[in-house]
């Protein structure tokens, strides 16, 4: 039975790794990103070469009408949505001390990272509830948050707040949707080699060299994608509202 996974921020980095892995797992892929398709055609060609069925949707998840269109186009193409991966997110355009953060930056980051997540999940959950159950659950929602949901970074406070909000959304939707057969999970990546971390690579290289991370290496997008793959399958049927750290052990408190 064919199932469909909707992934936001799917054109590169963690999102693309997730799209490819879930495609290899047998899901049809609705890949959402803000850029035009031709800009991301190289990555999409990789999906095609891997035998993955996909649809590209250019959209901004912070936009109300775009969120409605994302769900409609996915269902029109594939007939249903079985997995939603809320991966799309942005960092502040400029890192600033908490006392210098602008309202504009706060609003931008929260609008995409938290509000977009909240209301796209709402739309997808409504769609999932109308669908027949295939397998042992009706649907799966996976939120990609961050270790920043708990770790303070005072030079990008708006990002930390946005990801802490995603963690609460995970709990809220897990609570609301469990009776509908829809399970909700959260993945908290640590230092992952992506465009977002490339600008501060020297800082993280030093932290890794200083053994702040028990697994002393950069994470890669595929590390996150494999965790998503496990949640999307039927391996975790008696757990919801939980999270897993994909951070090389960074969360471990050590003396």
From TrEMBL:
PANTHER family with a match to the protein in the record: 3-OXOACYL-[ACYL-CARRIER-PROTEIN] REDUCTASE, SHORT-CHAIN DEHYDROGENASES/REDUCTASES FAMILY MEMBER
Annotated protein name in UniProt: 3-ketoacyl-ACP reductase
Any GO MF annotation of the entry: oxidoreductase activity, acting on the CH-OH group of donors, NAD or NADP as acceptor
Family named by the database record: Belongs to the short-chain dehydrogenases/reductases (SDR) family.
Annotated Pfam families: adh_short
Domain of life: Bacteria
Provenance organism: Candidatus Ornithospirochaeta stercoravium
Lineage of origin: Bacteria, Pseudomonadati, Spirochaetota, Spirochaetia, Spirochaetales
Keywords, ordered alphabetically: Oxidoreductase
């Amino acid at each position: 039975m064919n199932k469909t996974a909707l992934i936001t921020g799917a054109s590169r980095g963690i999102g693309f790794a997730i799209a490819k892995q879930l495609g290899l797992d047998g899901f049809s892929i609705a890949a959402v990103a803000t850029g035009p398709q031709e800009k991301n055609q190289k990555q999409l060609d990789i999906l095609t070469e891997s035998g993955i069925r996909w649809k590209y949707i250019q959209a901004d998840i912070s936009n109300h009408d775009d969120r409605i269109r994302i769900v409609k186009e996915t269902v029109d193409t594939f007939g249903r949505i079985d997995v939603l991966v809320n991966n799309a997110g942005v960092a502040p355009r400029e890192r600033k001390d908490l006392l210098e953060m602008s309202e504009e930056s706060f609003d931008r980051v929260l609008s995409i990272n938290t509000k977009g997540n909240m209301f796209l999940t709402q739309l997808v959950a409504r769609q999932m509830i109308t669908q027949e159950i295939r397998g042992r659950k009706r649907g799966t929602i996976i939120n990609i948050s961050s270790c920043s949901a708990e770790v303070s970074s005072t030079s990008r406070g708006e990002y930390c707040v946005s990801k802490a909000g995603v963690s609460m959304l995970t709990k809220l939707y897990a609570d609301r949707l469990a009776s509908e057969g829809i399970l909700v999970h959260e993945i908290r990546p640590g230092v992952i080699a992506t465009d977002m971390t490339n600008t501060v690579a020297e800082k993280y290289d030093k932290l890794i060299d200083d053994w702040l991370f028990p697994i002393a290496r950069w994470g890669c997008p595929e590390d996150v994608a494999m965790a998503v793959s496990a949640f999307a399958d039927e391996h975790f049927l008696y757990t919801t509202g939980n999270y897993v750290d994909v951070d090389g052990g960074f969360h471990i408190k050590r003396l």
